Amino acid sequence: MLTLNTVNLVGRVGADPEMRFFESGSVKATLSLAVRRRAKDAPPDWFNIELWGKTAEIAANYIRKGDQIGVSGYLKIEIWNDSTTGTLRSKPIVNANQLHLLGSKQDRPQAEDDTNLDTF
Predict the structure, then answer these.
(1) Among 60, 81, 61, 68, which residue's Cα sits nearest to residue 33?
(2) How far apart are CA 24 and CA 11, in angstroms?
(3) Helices and strands (DSSP H and E) totals, the chain
(4) What pTM does this model have?
(5) What is the dihedral of CA 73, 110, 116, 102, to 10 degrees?
(6) Among the four 13, 94, 101, 104, which has the fewest Cβ within 10 Å?
(7) What is the H or E stretch that residue 61 is in?
(8) Distance of CA 77 to CAs 9, 28, 42, 96, 108, Å?
(9) Looking at 1-5, 16-20, 33-37, which range is the least confident one?
(10) Is 49 helix (H, G, I), strand (E, B) or coil?
(11) What is the rounded distance in angstroms from the CA atom of residue 58 to the CA atom of residue 40?
(12) Could you report the per-residue pLDDT of 22-37, keeping only the tens digit for each?
């Protein structure tokens, strides 16, 4: 049986990434991404993006609200019980394992070394 769960998006960041550090040493960055549709008068689609580890650290250091980025990863559905109503809630999240910094390099702070900052 063949299964496929791949998401590729290019859009603009809605707010600076939010960082979360865990006791285990893991680090997570979350951000929202606005992706335009082909129709110019259509509103953008908004996606919740989650990045982990070194990719999350790069996001925190180089991504700001309004920046254009590309992400590749997979779609997961987060499910929880609402604490106030007790109802089951869910939301889709793109778990990005690759980050592409797009746009002009003049718009981003310069890295200390010029390693490939376009893909992580």
Answers:
(1) 68
(2) 31
(3) 1, 6
(4) 0.80
(5) 40
(6) 104
(7) helix 53-62
(8) 17, 17, 25, 14, 32
(9) 1-5
(10) strand
(11) 31
(12) 999 999 999 999 999 9
